């Protein structure tokens, strides 16, 4: 993440062919531009041959929306891969008024393609349920970041006899939520 582990300054550039994969896009840059680290930073472009494609980077930090219209925000990921955020679901079976709920999780980035695997837990503020998500952050063929997830939702039940109906499973696909000016 800029400012966390790299040294030096970064700029957003539009003349380096993001669509051809010659430089990684970054969520702090507008679409069609890419983050380039200035000379002297640990992530500068020195040593990269002209025309060489860099692996696309998928960054968890930011605002996301899923296929059901739910929104989540993931705050900065620390050096251990831990993060906090919030989740505003668009759907519920509880019948209660929906409220923004806290999430916490971690990511694991050991692959060279920087398409991190991650997991997070949402502790629902408006019901006696908890959901765990696990997934991977991808960059698709069009250069767009996508989170592919699977989840388990555990609801509170009155007795062990009802345990069979306490857990639901599903999948969600998240895409980055852009601001209006983007």
UniProtKB/TrEMBL annotation:
Keyword NADP attached: no
Subcellular location(s) per record: Secreted
InterPro entries noted in UniProt: Avidin (IPR005469), Avidin-like_CS (IPR017889), Avidin-like_sf (IPR036896), Avidin/str (IPR005468), Avidin/Streptavidin-rel (IPR051764)
GO molecular function, one term: biotin binding
Keywords: Biotin, Disulfide bond, Glycoprotein, Secreted, Signal
Chief location bin: secreted
Family to which this protein belongs: Belongs to the avidin/streptavidin family.
Primary role: Forms a strong non-covalent specific complex with biotin.
Protein name: Avidin
Species this chain originates from: Melopsittacus undulatus (Budgerigar)
């Amino acid at each position: 993440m800029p400012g966390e582990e790299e040294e030096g300054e970064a700029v957003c550039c539009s003349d380096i062919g993001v669509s051809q994969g010659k430089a990684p896009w970054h969520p702090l840059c507008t679409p069609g531009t890419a983050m380039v680290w200035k000379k002297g930073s640990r992530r500068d472009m020195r040593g990269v041959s002209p025309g060489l494609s860099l692996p696309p980077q998928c960054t968890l930090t930011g605002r996301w929306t899923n296929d059901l219209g739910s929104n989540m925000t993931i705050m900065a990921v620390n050096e251990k891969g831990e993060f906090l955020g919030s989740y505003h679901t668009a759907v519920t079976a509880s019948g209660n008024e929906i409220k923004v709920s806290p999430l916490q999780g971690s990511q694991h980035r050991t692959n060279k393609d920087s398409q991190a695997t991650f997991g997070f837990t949402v502790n629902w503020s408006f019901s006696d349920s908890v959901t765990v998500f696990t997934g991977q952050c991808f960059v698709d063929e069009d250069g767009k970041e996508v989170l592919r997830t699977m989840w388990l939702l555990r609801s509170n039940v009155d007795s062990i006899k009802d345990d069979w109906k306490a857990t639901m499973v599903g999948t969600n696909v998240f895409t980055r939520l852009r601001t209006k000016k983007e």
